[in-house]
Amino acid sequence: MMQFFKHYTNMRNDVKIKRVIKRYGLKGYGLYNAIIESIAESLCSERPLPTLEETAQDIAEQYNDDTAAINDIMSYMLKQGLFELDEITGRIICHKLYRFIDKSQTRSPEIRQMIENYKQNTIKSIECHRQIKTVSDKSDRVEVEESRVEVEVEVEVEKKARFTPPTAAEVQAYLDEIGNHTINRDSFIDYYESKGWMIGKNKMKDWKAAVRTWVRRENNNPKKQSLNTVQSRIDRVEELKKITGEA
Predict the structure, then answer these.
(1) CA angle 213, 129, 133 (to 5 degrees)
(2) Are residues 34 and 84 in the same domain?
(3) 52: domain CATH number?
(4) What range does the domain containing 34 cover?
(5) Which of 16, 143, 169, 227 is 20 to 30 A away from residue 177, measured at CA?
(6) Tell me: the pLDDT tens digits for 89-128?
(7) pTM of the prediction?
């Protein structure tokens, strides 16, 4: 369990947080920090992903507040990109929390690896942005702030074409591509079709990302992994029977 993490003294001046404060006042700012603290506190080897265990109702009951009001603030913070939604559980997740944690603050190898992965991905994102951005004014040739990179990436994502649900063949092809043979493609498709291809309250944007998250979740669950392996083998046997005419 994390005992502490770094906190920027000018956090309140972040453009996204300023929007939250402008709309909800100190209540919004306080809720943001309460969520960050709760996520950091729950980090451990068993739960290295920075997800929020509590729901809006849990938080409302803890602070004697209204569930609808808390849910409204949380939804607004999600729209601002301060948090994300876990594609499988629908819970709030904050990968940016790794920015505030040093590897020296934890003995967990899982959390240390997560921190290293986040920092490496951030460096790659900034370097890519520098290469494609044309700077006409020399005075603008300064290091691009991470928050601005995130905003521009979000704009590019919104410009992408509308989401189209994948076929069973496409899911299987991608599972083969990433070398996974334990996930049942039909179970994946049936699960998200039953939810209208929604992630929480938002429409899915990248089904391949959902597959990868599904694979990670299953790999961390030995019982499910074993069941999926058996089911996958049964499915393959059935397919072979159909091909050879034994069925």
Answers:
(1) 150
(2) yes
(3) 1.10.10.10
(4) 11-101
(5) 227
(6) 788 888 766 666 655 555 566 656 665 665 566 555 545 5
(7) 0.44
